[in-house]
Automatic annotation (TrEMBL):
CDD domains: GGDEF
Substrates-to-products reaction catalysed: 2 GTP = 3',3'-c-di-GMP + 2 diphosphate
Name of the molecule in the record: diguanylate cyclase
NCBIfam families named among the record's database cross-references: GGDEF
Transmembrane segments: 35-55, 62-80, 92-109, 121-140, 160-180, 187-205, 211-228
Gene Ontology annotations of biological process type: cell adhesion involved in single-species biofilm formation; negative regulation of bacterial-type flagellum-dependent cell motility
Originating organism: Pseudohalioglobus lutimaris
Gene Ontology cellular-component annotations: plasma membrane
Domain (GGDEF) ranges: 258-409
Renumbered residue ranges of the record's region Disordered: 341-363
Domain of life: Bacteria
Amino acid sequence: MHLHWAALVRLLAPTLIVGAALIAREYMPDLGGDARVILVNLPYLIAVGCVVMAYQFRRLRLMLATLGITALYWLIQTHLQVSLAQPDAARLFLVASLALPLLSLYLLLIPERGMFNTFGLLFTVVFLGIAGICFPLADVLVEAATTGDSAFSARPLEGYVLSVGASKLALAVAIVGLGLVVMRNTVAESVLLGVLASGFFSLALLHLEDISAAMGIAGGLCLVWGLLRSSYAMAYRDELTGLLSRRALNERLNTLGRRYSIAMLDVDHFKRFNDKHGHDVGDEVLKLVASRVNQVGNGGIAYRYGGEEFCIIFPRRSSEDCAAALDDVRARIADYKMSIRDRRSRPQRSKDGARRRGATRVGTDEVSVTISAGVAARDEDCPDPEAVILAADSKLYKAKKTGRNRVIF
């Protein structure tokens, strides 16, 4: 399994948002009049915007996260602005302290699969079910606390309200979330961790004035950031390979300086491979090639040009400088072996397939693919990006004609 450690950089934005909100909270009590009214209602206004964007982009997890953090803010504003010594307030606080990590864990673990389908309905029902279970669970914990010390009793420390048990639960969920960030390499997990952090501080520092408003705004802004990043990915990322798309390439070509090189790459005999093994296997091949191309060195930026063709821009590099990096990518793709199971020997029922997994490997084929590449640099004969691409394409064609699985520059 490939781990994307660079994805941890995405946590910087939620961290800055939550940190800035903690600092800004200290100045919020000085506000008055209309500013105070706006402050109290701002989390709701941000939530409305998030719900609209989540609906437009079909991001069910982020929509449910929006509803969850808004419900927490409403609960604090309407029912928890009293002493937690009151039984009703203590019970609701415990419900919130359980629901926050449990719902966050659920949203983190289940991948996004759309909104208006059976899965989306089931996903929402289970989300509401988890929230509902927190009420009887809180009653059980409250009853247990009457017989002795409870790990879920509020105010374990001076200046800290959240119980030890809920704190450990939130920490465990945060650790799981960090693991998912580097495993999945998507924006949603970073956003959900930001929402978890904002809810955590809302409960842990409940005694502080305006903490719920500050964290409600922070949680909403984390969601806004995530939804905007999602819209960017939809517009500028290729859905299959995860590489930057043709639209992103066209915009980048307009900003290149006076010195650069462009490489055009193509999967050899891809149509023949697709016809023989099927489009599903072909898609896996494209993902494999894209993952290797995306790791090209020498400052190269990879794009999916279309079909089985890829483009790499090397700012401030000559074609000779790029050849070694491209040849390394070519060699790593050629050396990678893929195992293709014989579908005819696979059991019809999935349960039988799980029991007889080894049997499906009997008729497997081990295959590999290769790529060809052409590289051209900007010069007097190729004064603009379009001309450089044409020159690189011509050299790609030459690589194909002279035997494939090679780089021509």
